[in-house]
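Listing S7. Sequence submitted for prediction.
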Amino acid sequence: MPVAAHQEYRLRPVKTLLRRIGRRRSAVYRGLAAVPFFAAAACGSDVGDASDVVLARHVHTDLYDAYPGIPSPAGDRVVFADYAADKRSLTVYDVATGVGRALTRTPGGRTRVTWSPDGSRIVYVDRQSDRHGAWTLDPDTGRESRIVDPGDARIDYPRLLPDGTVTALRYAGADTAWVAYAPGVEGAISIVVDRAGGWVAPVRSPDGRSVAYLRAAGRRADLAVTEIATGETRTLAADLRLGWDRRVEWSATGGALHLAAAGIDDSLFVAWRVPVDGGPTERLEHSGRDVLAVTPLADGRVALSVYHTRTAVGLVPVSGGEPTDVTTAGPTSAFLPSWHPGGRALGFITFSWRRVRMPIDFDLGVLDLDAEGAPTGTVRTLLSEEGEDYGAAWSSDDRWLAFHSHMEQSDDIWLVPVGGSERPTRLTHFGPGADTGEPDWSPDGRTLAFSSHGPPLEGNPGSVYTVAVDPATGRAAADPVRVPLDGFRGYAMGARFSPDGERLAFYGRSFEDGRATVYTVPTAGGTPTAVVSFVNGEPYSAPEWSADGASLFYSRNDGVGPFQVWRVDIATGATEQVTTGALGALQPSVSPDGRTLAVTMREAAIEVVALATGSTGAN
């Protein structure tokens, strides 16, 4: 069947490879059948006559961990979990109007979000210690109710059944069981499967006779179905790579399972329909996009939660406006810009984004600019070393390039001559896990500032450091110094020298409520001065000084929509939004002449799409 001109999705049968797995016995498993596992399809047919429907689109406030949207059984509402300001908030969109409402306001550990069978409530587990248990949320009123309090045990993957029973994985010491809680917070516990170690995302079949789950081992998992009465187990698929929000869903008739996963040869997460009877596995993929969740709807359609993300470096006048993308270069993304001291080039991180294989080889790219600040030529490589290289920082005399790297199993600041062939020199020796940030040069070119967990890692959630550099040799003139932040209680992130070199600006995140604050402090340390505080700040770089040192640029989104760059007047605290645009902007960097901002333009959104009726071949 030919594809309609607008159709972006393709359904194709997967070549099935069979592999015999030996039988084993335990309290749960009675045997394993032949296993079809996922492989890339070499051929297939296109399907689809009707239009797919976008149910909801949500711009995520967390930059890197965007979690899927889950539609209600009727497909009339979609819920998204978002981690703005560490609150793990829930937002519900009405499909008819397109309007979304953030329904949770208090901090919590909300995750594993699903719906009740009748669509009247949202179901999830809250992992926060004082709230731990299974909860429901009324999407009309926003009222939250705890429906299971597991006491000293821990539970995960709760599912609410039509009669009010809650099934979940229960962890009690070293024992893991799949259990059923009778209705009510103090409901009785029934152990359905007493040995469920390694299980992920169990869900009962519509007829109540079987349970489907993922059996995890390291970074891979198998899809299995166990008959509850007999313990007979069939493994339907093997060697799956899973995303962060793991889930399995039954079709309404119980004839098939749906999940998002990556097969052996996949570079993206895709959607799968796996018949329980061993029939051909079907694969749904969206061109160039990760599918993070698959949800069958009551009317027979299937909804995909599709991840949209891209980053680029853009330029915008400091007076404000929508940034202009200057680094578009096919599949390669760019972020965290910095300026050459003469203003004739931009440095930034380059990488290719994939959720399956997260970027572990960042390189430093560079783009030349003409006298008017317009790009000339294309992006070229400035520095390419093994591992994560980022935070290109030119010294004021254009002699040295400082950067962060994981070379030689480090997590430290390194230095290399600009344009030279010498190997980089390591300036700090914090080691793996220090989470050291990008460096910034002092105006005199003799000191670098940065943030790091640094030693000791315990009790140091993030601090500001400086390290003295010999400008003649490019070597550290002394050990790094932890800048005293008197009275500060929180997570310090990023560090930038003021134009006169007398103060440092950094982000601080509160331990108590997760709010972000822009601080300044004397370079030698002292009591930090809070300049502006806000709900949700971009914690992956640092505030940026204006050329005259009178104001600071920073990124925020207040828990809703894309990040934008704002400016705050240090003396008065007055703020104004600088950037506009659907993609948003963050990580501002001011040009040497003070007239232009280079920013990271980032889209991080989830689109929930209901496929045309019948396009999945579902029962």
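Caption to Listing S7: primary sequence and predicted structure tokens for the chain studied. The chain has a mean pLDDT of 85. The two ends are 19 Å apart (CA to CA).
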